[in-house]
Amino acid sequence: MYIMRMLTCLFNLLWWLHGIRVRIPARCNEGGFPISLHTNDDPLNLLKFQSIDYVYMTGDFVDHGVWETSQETNTKTITAVVNAAKETFGDIPIIFTLGNHEPTPVNQYVPNKYAPLDVDDDVSSKWLYELVSSYITDEAKQTILQGGFHTLLLRPGFRVIILNNVVGYKSNFWMALGSEDPYGQLKWLAETLLQAEQDGEKVHLLYHIQMQSCLPTWSREYHKIIDRFENIITAQFNGHTHTDEFQVFHSVSDLTRANSVLFNGGSGTANANVNPNYRIYTVDPTSLYVLDAETWIYNLTDANLSPKINPKWFLEYSMREAFGVPTLLPQALSSLTHSMARDHALMRQYYRYCQVLMRS
């Protein structure tokens, strides 16, 4: 049986990459947080030797030095990350979404009604959409230029939809002027899913932030769409938090019935209390549901003790094996969350994995 593997966070059916930052000078450690003495392309060097079908990159290629960003510096960083990924993976399809650190100022995606895309000024997000449009197919460019979202048919029967949900982020202050559907993105999502349903396709959704971080109206309407198309949406993937976690969606009409799962693969770069990590997903090639998820990490403390030696990556855990679940389908993971509520040791184990072996 052929099994698809992919990566999230950075990168076997689908590799999903979140937060990989390439050859950006390290900042000093004045804030007291652990920093890596290794170059930030260490995960890319490792992944050259992995067997990968697709790469999912979930945004935040630009670092957290939000006070010093500009269109020029962000363009250089995004270009460096994309080029490094292309060099590493060659002909393997790479699918990426925008994060909240790509625009400048940080978090600010400007709805077209306040800065039309045909106006080339410092307020519009046009520069960013034009930049990322050069990395995708001509077919997908129209919606990328419209608002940073697009869709790709990876093979017959398998579609991925890439959203720019940061526009609905609570910290996107432009939304304070009105909570309507910016760029008509949610309307487009519903129409694209309807066409996919009619064409007999299964769909993965890729976006940056969790929906609870969006404005309530944006999140509410998104949940309605997930509920309507639960029969074809087989997995969702996001980034943003740097932590290794999952969320279970439940039916709007029956809150006891789980109908979708959102996976977060962590981050290829270190963060406070978090070791560098990436995740490999094994996916059924027919149903396109996730069968298992493996998290790979290296110990940042050990790596910094030997800065001239490449870090030793190792398998932290397999989700199915660690939690004893038969599948990663929505109902199985919903049952797991109920077990965590009763079993504090199980909850502590999940939290330890969520923080990616933080006590290094």
Describe this structure in words.
The chain is an alpha/beta fold and 360 residues long. It has a domain at 4-136 and 233-249 and 258-354. It is 28% helix and 20% strand. It has ten helices and 13 strands. It has helices at residues 42-47, 71-89, 126-133, 141-147, 185-198, 216-228, 300-305, 319-323, 330-342, 344-354, and strands at 4-8, 14-17, 54-57, 94-96, 150-155, 158-162, 202-206, 233-238, 244-250, 258-265, 277-283, 290-297, 314-318. Strands 1, 2, 3, 4, 11, 12 and 13 form a seven-stranded mixed β-sheet that branches. Helix 2 (71-89) links the parallel strand 3 (54-57) and strand 4. Helix 3 runs antiparallel to helix 4 and helix 9 packs across helix 10 (344-354). The longest helix has 19 residues, at 71-89. The protein is globular and about 55 Å long. The relative contact order is 0.14. It is found in: Secreted. GO terms for molecular function: acid sphingomyelin phosphodiesterase activity; metal ion binding. It comes from Timema genevievae (Walking stick). Keywords: Glycoprotein, Hydrolase, Metal-binding, Secreted, Signal, Zinc. Belongs to the acid sphingomyelinase family.
